[in-house]
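Internal tracking record. Fields below are filled automatically when a chain is submitted to the structure queue. Please do not edit lines marked as system-generated. If the sequence contains nonstandard residues, flag them in the REMARKS field before resubmitting.
Queue: standard
Priority: normal
Entity type: single polypeptide chain
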Amino acid sequence: MHKGWILPLLLFLPTLLAGLGMLARTPRMAVRLLTWGTLACAAASVAAALLALGQPAELKAMGAWLMVDALSAYHLLVMAVVFSLSGLYSRSYFEPDLIDGSLSLGTARRFAALWFASMAAMNLVLVSNNLGLMWVGIEATTLVTAFLICIHATPTSLEAMWKYLLMCSVGVALAFMGTLLLAAATHGSGIEGADALLWTELRDSAARLNPKLVKIAFLFLVVGYGTKAGLAPMHNWLPDAHSQAPAPVSAIFSGFLLNAALYCILRTLPLVEALPGQAGWGREILVAFGLISILVAAVFIIAQHDVKRLLAYSSVEHLGIIALGVGLGGLGYVAALFHIFNNSVSKSVGFFCAGSIGKLAGTHDMRKINRVMALSKVWGGGLTGSLLAIIGAAPFALFLSEFLILHTAIQQGHWFIAGAFLFGLALVFIGALRHLISISWEPHVEPVTPHRATLLEGVIVFVPLATLLMLGVYVPAPFWHLLEKAARILGGAS
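SYSTEM-GENERATED OUTPUT FOLLOWS
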């Protein structure tokens, strides 16, 4: 049997589970389906990635409309990690609501259905060889994830949902214009009919595309998909949506949804780089957006008081770091891909811990939270560890990936970029560390009863953090080879 059969399965399985979620008979059944179904979908993603990586060429299906290569395989693996952790955390997150009966059957059904629908949409983005189909996947993620933000409807969550819908819909509309311009750029290139939006066809014919149209298309795509990815100055929706969504949803937003949007930009970058005489043009745009995102996020992080909003602004910063790394090229490609994994894992754990600490303390306001480890050794210790990782403290892996990006900038002689990058990182480190010291080590005014965490909660917090510590001092050769293989695609290799 041809191995390409697994690619349609990545779309069919979560879609089927979304339907089953609406048929759950009890809230507990819906939560169990969410947990185990997520693990099943993650296993399918890992299988598809490994099958693709074992092929001499891309793994294709459905007339080459679906395709997985090293770049998409790597993102499938990251997505599997983020959703697996978030699915397991959802069980812990909803357990108090299941015990006291505050989680209604309708809410549990909607949450499970929308959760799996978002998985199907993100899978569609990653396995689409057709850029139009990829755009459909991004549009679908906007529609289904918007309602996850306000699963517990409040005035602020509804406002965040509408802001998310409006801004991202405008961004996706701009990305649609860019997609149409890419199709128009194939005129006279020998690409005919429906093949005009196949990424593999565009890559192989890049030198024959209309360069002006491709460059204009790329600008539309960067601004459009960059809005969904949370790049500054198009990031305004992100802090509200991430802070108002339930913690498991915030984790998949920051942990992977932003990556999925940035992935669309990464897919089109090799097409611009392959234009005759235009090498470096597209990367310079990403460097600019990357630096702006880092510096804008740094300012807001210093003045932030809500821990979930701090994590949200940190996502703006880290997506900027990834864009900067890609923009530098060379080793920067590898470092940026490495940073995608590091940020996804640390941000997921950060939102898990922030959400649980918020429930225990009754607030997300860092001015009212002290000695988080007294509240819970697992959630408090995890929040402290994840924040240290997120701000790039050594020896966490984020320090290593940021160092590699800085090394690339200096090696290439981009001293201004290196200086601006260091300045932004320093602002974030100082600003976030001030908040971290306040919530972790300032004494409590009143005594508290510590929360006893379960073994599962300890696993989903400390295993990821231990992984980031290990990767900060030792990167296994197979993982590094995967990063290099995916980086070669960004560099234009077939």
